[in-house]
Amino acid sequence: MTSLTWRSVLYVPADNLRALEKAQTLGADAVLLDLEDAVAPERKRDARGQAAAALAQAWPCPVLLRVNAPGTPWHHEDLELALAARPDGVVLPKVEDPQQLHPLPGEWPLWAMIETPLGVLRAPEIAAHGRAAGLIAGTNDLARALRTRPDPERRPLLHALSSVVLAARAHGKVPLDAVYNNVRDPEGFRRECRQGRDLGFAGKTVIHPLQVEPANQEFGVTDAEAEQARALLAAWEEARAQGRSVATFSGALVEQMHVDEAREVLALYTRSAG
């Protein structure tokens, strides 16, 4: 799953039939059917049934299923649904210990939500788990647990966010940034996407259809960036053809690290275009 793009991962409440139908058309890189926070207790059963029906359909993207946490009245039935419906991955809320991943049945990739202080501290151990596909930052619960004040630049959370990225990248897993709550602030959303990308996140979890395309753009590769990568690779190949072990591009020394990065940019560009 890590070879896919994860620029935008759209949360969809599994009890909202209209949202489930619309989600297939929005162009998100992945859809996350939510049985947990977005569904009221009295709606859990209906949500489970609609999630099963949705997972039986053909989707243009991976579909993940967020189950309720262990110890809740709904956890066991959520796992039974996952076993029967076979989503592309299961999202676990408030993971604080890799042991929480060990007893889970099935073979689906697991996505661990890191949304508590202990989860942040143990993120490297969680990311190292063999079934972990990625880490998802959950800043709403984390900010509350840390008693931080609201900050549009997320300065109180930067250490935790970077810790999530560091843990995921160290183990070859996908780090996904947290949601942006104000769906009426498109510029603030883009600003936070750019910040998340600068921090090293692969993409962003989103909660509204209007956030999908901006996330795809901010975490994607522009035509200009792709052309720049092609030109750097051409300079490298020319230098190698001339028997030189180093190359220069735009006045800067080109090393193997830059070549690898350019190839990654083009791979992302190709996957995004496809």
From TrEMBL:
GO BP terms in the entry: oxaloacetate metabolic process
Cofactors: Mg(2+)
Keyword Glycosyltransferase part of the UniProt annotation: no
Residues that, per the record, bind Mg(2+): E115, D141
Keywords assigned: Lyase, Magnesium, Metal-binding, Plasmid
InterPro entries in the cross-refs: Aldolase/citrate-lyase_domain, Citrate_lyase_beta/mcl1/mcl2, Pyrv/PenolPyrv_kinase-like_dom, Pyrv_kinase-like_dom_sf
EC number of this enzyme: 4.1.3.34
Annotated residues for binding of substrate: R66, E115
Domain HpcH/HpaI aldolase/citrate lyase: 7-209
Keyword set includes Metal-binding: yes
GO MF entry, a single one: citryl-CoA lyase activity
Pfam families per UniProt: HpcH_HpaI
Enzyme class: lyase
Signal peptide per UniProt: none
Superkingdom as given in the UniProt entry: Bacteria
Name the record gives this protein: Citryl-CoA lyase
Organism, scientific name: Deinococcus proteolyticus (strain ATCC 35074 / DSM 20540 / JCM 6276 / NBRC 101906 / NCIMB 13154 / VKM Ac-1939 / CCM 2703 / MRP)
